[in-house]
Amino acid sequence: MKSVLAVSLLTLAAAVLCAQDKSSDSGSGSANSNIEKEILDAEQAYRDATLKQDGQAMEHLLRLDYMAVDPDGMVFTKRDLPPGPKVSGKAKPVLNAFKVRAYGDLAIVTGGETWPGPPAVANRFIHIWSKTDGQWQLAITQITRVKAAPKAPAKAHAAPTAKK
């Protein structure tokens, strides 16, 4: 199952890269900024719907063939997606390193999120959006948990020297 997912993601990435040349035909920076704004609005709607566990909103935001891979490698479809965490106003994730890349009717969003703790959890994510019938819908989500950097030793010790 994981190999099928990997092949699917690689095929999609190859298709996006091939479509990149065709999508740049507009030659207009404003066209890309409009797409970026549309995607950022769709991302916000997705985050709001996830945090509120709003199934009706999610129905419109997710493609019928939506697929998600969680940090543990579990694969979910639109139909078997577990509800997102219902959180209070203080427990919202902090987003960082947000980047949108648009390729015609496909857009890739990469970013990071940190959920407050304890324990605090940090993730990196990739969202692939597809525009169908004039509406951006989320096609694929992939989330990777960021492991904490190892802590430095409290006290540095000198390397042992050989006795002569």
Overview of the molecule:
There is one protein chain. By secondary structure, the protein is of the alpha+beta class. The protein has a single domain, classed as Nuclear Transport Factor 2, Chain: A, CATH 3.10.450. The protein is 32% helix and 34% strand. It is built from three helices and six strands; from the N terminus they run H-H-H-E-E-E-E-E-E. Strands 2-1-6-5-4-3 form a six-stranded mixed beta sheet. A hairpin with a 2-residue loop joins strand 3 and strand 4. The longest helix has 24 residues. It is globular. The N terminus is likely disordered.
CATH class: Alpha Beta
Number of strands: 6
- Count of individual domains: 1
Helicity range of the residues?
A: 25-40%
- By secondary-structure content and strand pairing, the structural class works out as alpha+beta
Task: Provide a count of the helices.
Answer: 3
Low-confidence stretches: 2-28
The mean pLDDT is 78
**Termini Cα gap:** 60 Å
Shape: globular
Rg calc: 20 Å
Strand order of the largest sheet: 2-1-6-5-4-3
Corresponding CATH architecture: Roll
Largest sheet features: 6 strands, mixed
Produce a short descriptive summary:
This protein is α+β, with helices and mostly antiparallel strands and 164 residues long. It has a single domain, classed as Nuclear Transport Factor 2, Chain: A (Roll). It contains three helices and six strands, in the order αααββββββ.
